[in-house]
Amino acid sequence: MTHASPETHVIAYRAAEQLLRARDPRGAVRLLDPVVTAHPENTAARLLRARAHFLAAQLRSAEEDFRLVVEREPDNAYAHFALARTLQRGSRDEEALAHFRLAAALDPRPDFVAAARFEHRGPGERGEGERGA
């Protein structure tokens, strides 16, 4: 087995991006596995691999990678949002909602806010599940 150079890993990363655009997530995972193995600290490669796992419906692997990114970068709104989508796809809606809300709090993009299901309430109005004292 030959030792791949950092340049080879960059090329593999860029090729994996292209494969995702071409809707070949499994091919992207095959390219990214050695990159993540060689550079486990590289959050960008892990995030791209998580996206590829998600698109390949490999939810357990996607969740593992997204969770690691969220641990390393707790202010990464996209990682929280993508983790939430992964949990949602696995019918874990309550867990997903927490990450949707974190994503929206970190970055109030319309799609993040909509997924977080924040409701506009007037003064004195209570949301669903809230109780008075």
Write up this protein:
There is one protein chain. The protein is mainly alpha-helical. Mean pLDDT is 89; it is low at 124-133. α2 (25-38) runs antiparallel to α3. Helix content is 68%, strand content 0%. It is built from seven helices and no strands. The longest helix has 16 residues, at 6-21. It has helices at residues 6-21, 25-38, 43-55, 59-72, 77-89, 93-106, 110-116.
Write a brief structural summary.
The protein is mainly α. The protein has 7 helices and no strands. It has helices spanning 6-21, 25-38, 43-55, 59-72, 77-89, 93-106, 110-116.
Give the distance, in angstroms, between the N- and C-terminal Cα atoms: 66 Å
Low-confidence stretches: 124-133
Structural Rg: 18 Å
Number of helices: 7
Quote the beta fraction.
under 5%
Principal-axes geometry comes out as elongated
Q: What is the chains' assembly state?
A: single chain
Structural class: mainly alpha
Q: Largest beta sheet, briefly?
A: none
User: Which sequence of SSEs, written as H and E, runs from N to C?
Assistant: HHHHHHH
Helix content: 55-70%
